[in-house]
Amino acid sequence: MKKVYVDDTRHITIVCPKCGFSTRIDVTNLMDKKKINAKCKCTEIFQFTLEFRKNYRKDVKLPGEYVVQKSGERGEIVVENLSLGGIQFITLRQHNISTGDALALKFKLGNPARTEISRSARVVWVGDRSVGVQYVGPKLFEKDLGFYLRS
């Protein structure tokens, strides 16, 4: 099923897979829907899902490490998915990471150059050993990361 990205104004552009007709619609009243059915003027019926993320997210399995800035706690991680805005990772052991913590992250991309990414991040959510973070600070590696996400 095709994902359609919602822009900052809560609009999407959908394109009919049969005839190519495109239209822009407001999805403010559809924000709680999982699957959306659409019917084109050519009578084609198709489904899509809404994606509210600002950046494409790529599933990966990349080893790395974290340091909690406040406490100095360190640990090894596996990056499970990444985007230009942040990553989701799992820790290899129990941790004391909390929502709002500032982290220093380091991991290597799975590209031939094995580009090392070192970023500061703020914790957005914490599960058991799963953590979601948003990058903060300068975007030093955005070009490398952007190229990797497209490959």
Can I get a quick summary?
With 151 residues, the protein is mainly beta.
**How many strand segments?**
11
The structural domain count equals 2
* Sheet with the most strands: spatial strand order: 6-7-8-11-10-9
* Strand/helix succession: EEEEEEEEEEEH
- Can you tell me the CATH topology of the largest domain? Thrombin, subunit H
Compute the separation of the termini in Å.
21 Å
> Which regions contain 5 or more consecutive residues with pLDDT less than 50?
none
Could you explain how this protein is built, in words?
Helices cover 6% and strands 50% of the residues. The model has no long low-confidence stretch (mean pLDDT 90). The protein starts with a strand and ends with a helix. It has one helix at 142-150, and strands at residues 2-5, 11-15, 22-26, 36-39, 45-51, 58-68, 74-82, 86-91, 102-108, 116-126, 130-136. 13% of the residues are buried. It is built from one helix and eleven strands.
SSE topology sketch:
Elements lengths: L1 E4 L5 E5 L6 E5 L9 E4 L5 E7 L6 E11 L5 E9 L3 E6 L10 E7 L7 E11 L3 E7 L5 H9 L1
Parallel strand pairs: 1-5
Antiparallel strand pairs: 2-3, 4-5, 6-7, 6-9, 7-8, 8-11, 9-10, 10-11
Keywords:
3-stranded mixed sheet, 2 domains, 151 residues, 6-stranded antiparallel barrel, 6% helix, 50% strand, 11 strands, mainly beta, Thrombin, subunit H
